[in-house]
Amino acid sequence: MSPAIGILLFIGTILFMEGFAYVAHRWIMHGPGWFLHKSHHEPRTGNWELNDLYAVIFAVPSFVLLLGGVQLGWWPGFAWIGAGIAAYGAIYFGFHDIIVHKRLNHRYLPKSNYMKRIIQAHRLHHVVATKEGTVSFGFLWAPAPEKLKAQLNAGGNAGVRAPRGTA
Question: 0.85 cut: is pTM over it?
C-alpha cells in the first residue's frame, strides 16, 4: 500500500470518527449508555468518572486494528485506520478533557472563533443535567451557539441546571 493511500485512510478515519462520535454520543451515551455517561453530567468528585470507561471501549477497535495491520499480517490499511481512531481519541482528549473540562490545569484561553465556538457549544451541552433535552453532540464541529440556545429555549429549557450559586 502506498503511503499516500495510508495517509488518506488516516485522515478519512479522523473525519469519520467525528460522525461516529456524534452518533454514539447522541444515541448511545444519551440513550441506553446513560448509566455510564450520567457521571459526566454531574460534578466530578475525583480524577475519574464512570464515563471514562467509554475511552477504554472506543480504544479497543483502534488497538485491534493497529495490532492486526502491523503484527498479524492483516491488510496494512487497518493499521492506518487504527491510527486514525487513536489520533481522534488524542484530539478528543486534548480538546474535551484538557481544554474544556480542565482535567489538567492550564491557562489556555481560546482566541480563534473556531475554538470559542466549540467550547461554548460543549458548555451549552452541559447546561442540561438530564439525558434528554440537551444540544450539541459533536466534539470537533458544532452549530453556532445562537442556534443551540434557540434549541434549548424551544425545548422549554427542560433539564437545564440552575445557575451556579443559586438555590
Answer: yes
